[in-house]
Design goal:
45 residues
């Protein structure tokens, strides 16, 4: 069972990881152009 969506270290509990120096969404891939293109194709824009 994973304790976070993207752990810095596999097998180390989140409370023992250094989350103070980690950017908030560092583990999440942000692809704005791809997301906007998908919204256009779906008719939202």
């Amino acid at each position: 069972v994973r304790t976070t969506s993207n752990p810095m270290e596999v097998g180390v509990p989140v409370w023992e990881q250094d989350l103070e120096n980690t950017i908030e969404r560092g583990g999440r891939r942000q692809d704005k152009e791809k997301s906007m293109d998908r919204l256009r194709k779906l008719g939202y824009m």
